[in-house]
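fold-stage: in
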Amino acid sequence: MTRAVLIAAPSSGSGKTTLTLGILRALTQRGFAVRGAKSGPDYIDPRFHEAACDQPCFNLDAWAMCPSRLKSLAQSDADTTLIIEGAMGLFDGAPNLDPALDGKGASADLARVFDIPVILVIDASRMAQSIGAVVAGFVGHDPRISIKGIILNKVGSLRHRDMLVRALAHVDVPVLGAVPRSADIIHPDRHLGLVQAQERHDLDAYLDTVADSVAAHVDLNAILALAGNVASAPKHTALTPPAQTIAVAQDAAFAFAYPHLLADWRNQGAEISFFSPLANQAPPAVELTYLPGGYPELYAGQLASNHHFMQGLREAAARRAVYGECGGYMVLGDGMIDATGQRHKMAGLLGLETSFATRKLHLGYRAVHSDCGLFQGPWCAHEFHYATTLKATGTPLFKVKDAMDQDLPDTGLINGSVSGSFMHLIDRA
């Protein structure tokens, strides 16, 4: 049986990730069976969840995944409590001109699908009595959402805490904790989110510090008691793998591969191996070499000089399929210009030139369709990068619409057995 609770907030930056990590680590230290999940398209936070509780973490994307897929991912064979971390604000989702679809994919959608309670994390650092109005507004906004607890975060003092609690006395939702403001639990970030888990050599010590703070100031037993049962659903049909033997690039430059896709491919009989371009490893001799997204722009010079990797990639493309997604797509191109303006020669397998010298945000859910290549048909995807495309010469890979069903320019490239795009594929449409 799986029980679950959603950790949400009025907005980004409220401290959901930090508190979720503290809850996962503190409960794990006490011997409870817990695991984490992350709402929406996020590659970075789930790896912290895994480190906090030593259990796999999947994304639960209510825009791109149907209810049966969501429930299948949430279920566990063991008796487990699932701590789901929301994304952005509780009701923030994809825009749509249709009122019935506006906000689709919000964390609130997961609470509805699973029929589970919400714990609302409030950044109280700049609040006093107004917190009562904020919480009352969220509690009454949607009768289908059940907010069952509040955690006050970034509290300035005991006097500040008492003031906040008094202001919430008229709201029929218990305060489960008040976590003081502390520089020790702040985590550094960069342009796509938090600094990655594998980049923190002090990760265990950091997680223990966060867990100590949460355990001292949050009622963990109350959180466990609030968790609601997740209804079972028919097992979701796994996605067909694009090849039967697949080599996946995996290191600090290429870390953005969705675990649910890799799990689907394995469940359908594919053999998956890993290699590290940053360690100058060439891809093994397999049917498909897959370069996922990540931060190759931070390592462009190193990747360009890793001749064993680059030559192995070109040899793989000469005989087998190669696919690049976002950062991996850029590495398959002719060149990449880093943030300092220096150009680095890439694999030269696609007519693509990209630059980070002038950053431009590309962000949003995408509905894509391809008539060729490895991922034909309709897919739900998302785009999130700061690269500028200086050149994209060749045959486009995907036709694209945004979340509002508006046409966007064709994207990606396909050149024989080599293909890729900036789109992160999530699930079949």
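fold-stage: in (second)
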Amino acid sequence: MTQQQPPQDFDELRKRVTARYESLSPRLQQAARYLLDHPKDVAFSTVAKISESAGVTPSTLIRLANTFDFSGFSEMQGLFRARLVDELPNYTERIRAVRSATGETPGSTQLLWEFADANRAALEQLPGRIDSGTLEQALNIFEEARAIHVMGARRSFVVASYMTYALHHIDKRAFLINGLGGMYGEQVKSIGDNDALMVISFSPYAEETRKLAAAARERNIPLVVITDSNVSPLAQLADVYFVVQEAEVKGFRGLAASLCLAQTLAIALGVRHELTSAMPINR
């Protein structure tokens, strides 16, 4: 059997991994997810460090590379390094990526600096991770929708709540799906055929959010998702999805980047509305 050519760039690799993700073994899935979600760390880290961070053995990384027709892991890693050539080198980010925890008990001021620094880094990375074409696709969906329904359970609820608030302030009909009284099903049924749904969900992906997204998919309701991985189950259901990497300090994850993206979507939609309203009408 003729061996298939390995992917020629990072985007092609990402598409192949995403397409075959469900058929991979659990260990290969674990390795693949880490690689796709931390491409800059993979680009300049050693195999030992990558395997430790991903929670797999070095041999698993080699098997993953072979699965996608690379001769070895170093050849696959070359795609991650080549990807960095197209971006401005961020040496602060690289130093932070390899810095290990000191193990000291932090004081409140130290914690403030750590959280502020981590969230600043997440915000700095956000524009480079979001494709402008994807932004426009999401805005097209929102603009054409009669109303936008927004859901985010648990930690994601903050982002969903803010998004609904912001949409109200640009005079776009919006409804927060909050499951009050356990009425998720009833709220889903209220989504009209000409409406759109926005879902925010991060690992481990709330079950009610997954069910809601699947129900919307069955009804062909346009679905925009903010999530944390290319292989997120929500991403596989979405018409448009955004992968956001939030800051994490001592196991506590932030929401600054997701809130920034939600704010951008709402305000950009408002700008579109203002431009459309200001256009002269041909008589």
